[in-house]
From TrEMBL:
Residues 141-287 form the Glycoside hydrolase family 31 TIM barrel domain. This is Alpha-galactosidase. Belongs to the glycosyl hydrolase 31 family. It comes from the Bacteria. Keywords: Glycosidase, Hydrolase. One of its GO terms (molecular function) is alpha-galactosidase activity. Gene3D superfamilies: Aldolase class I (3.20.20.70). One of its GO terms (biological process) is carbohydrate catabolic process. It comes from Solihabitans fulvus. InterPro entries: Aldolase_TIM, Alpha-glycosidase_related, GH, Glyco_hydro_31_TIM, Glyco_hydro_36.
Amino acid sequence: MPVDPARAVVHEQGWQSWSPSTGYALGEQPHRPNAEKRRIGCYRPETAPGADVFWGEGLLAVDPGDGGPVTVVAAVEPTGTVPSIRARAVDGRVVVAADGPVRVVTDAGAGGVPGALARWADEVAGGLGLPAPRPAPTIWCSWYQYFTKVTEADVDRNLGLLDTLELPVDVVQVDDGYQAEIGDWLIPSGRFSDTPGLFKRIADRGRRAGIWTAPFLAGARSRMAADHPDWLVRDTDGTPVSAGNNWDQDLYALDTTHPGVRDYLRSVFSTFAGWGIDFHKIDFVYAAAIPGVRHEDVTGIEAYRSGVRLIREAIGAQAYLLGCGAPQLPSIGLVDAMRVSPDIAPSHEPESGDVSQPSQRGAALNGVSRAFQHGRFWVNDPDCVVARPGVERREEWAAHVAEFGGLRGSSDGLDQLDDWGLKTTRRLLTDPVPRHFVAS
Ligand code: 9PG
């Protein structure tokens, strides 16, 4: 399509929650992985190009910059096949190619790229007959203060502080750190002595209990991977496919079509339901869709969707389901809320220079560019409020959550908050959430 090369913007939408998604001028270098483990864990590894071409996963938009209509190039079936879409600037034109079926929408409506994406999302949601998302609960999450070092006492202390401070938090969500290993969800880590008892204490105090899992990952150190090597997605030569590297170990992907895996996931999530847990943050779920050989001959996206559906059945229809590290378009219709960004961090810039990694800049970048999904596909989770002293530019992050936060969560040790932090946390947990961010 013809464009004004000085003014045109190519807007990329990435594969999963953590994949950088934003618009670029034609001369700009798009964000790309700067290490192999990040390419696998934060982008779509099988399609990742270099910075010499623009790249959307199932969705890319071009604003020609000459006042003309926006062009949206999108997957024909966003929950079925997600083509990789490439765009290049060539002699005053943008040339787009895709490796699967796409449709091209010319949108002359108001609001530029965000407006065009919102109208596209309305059409997709309408076509699938999606109901309006359920109202989201408010959350306290253990991750961004305690990380993997969280203890049972930390959660109990904050549970008490929620009462003392009278904070309007519905769900106390225990994040990564309660479990022995990645995959060994029912074996407690050394810092937790009575996990079911902790969840009962949460319910006894009138809050809902929430838990984090990475249900489709198998850590190399886990008992699960040692006991069930046949559960892993493999290459054609029989080697387990890498699902990345984190927690100082290699990660593998569970084959969600394998009957043993399905039984195991059912038993884990039914056990959680029996403990009274009814909020689930399922994380690193991109793993279920990774290309490879499975028990049943299905696509990665089909394997992913059947894995998430199985979890939904085990947790019950009333439980709240939050996707994280999740392929975006393939999750439509499966989750109540979706993390749309990489992690927030106390620092504004990512340590590694890659905005798929924890940073305020990366989290805000995606939160803005994915605002069009909120209220249409699910409730957007921009990531938690962190408002304690020491968080760089905390006023800016709070303003971002106020504008773009569908799901509202606090993730500070509540005894770490100063007056401003407490006041801001209370306000963000109390204020009504915008239903749609973009007029359609
Ligand atoms: C728990 C955390 C928190 C957080 C999630 C997720 O290696 N990585 O690129 C990587 C990306 C994200 C990440 C961890 C590692 O964070 O987003 O909220 O639940 O897991 O481990």
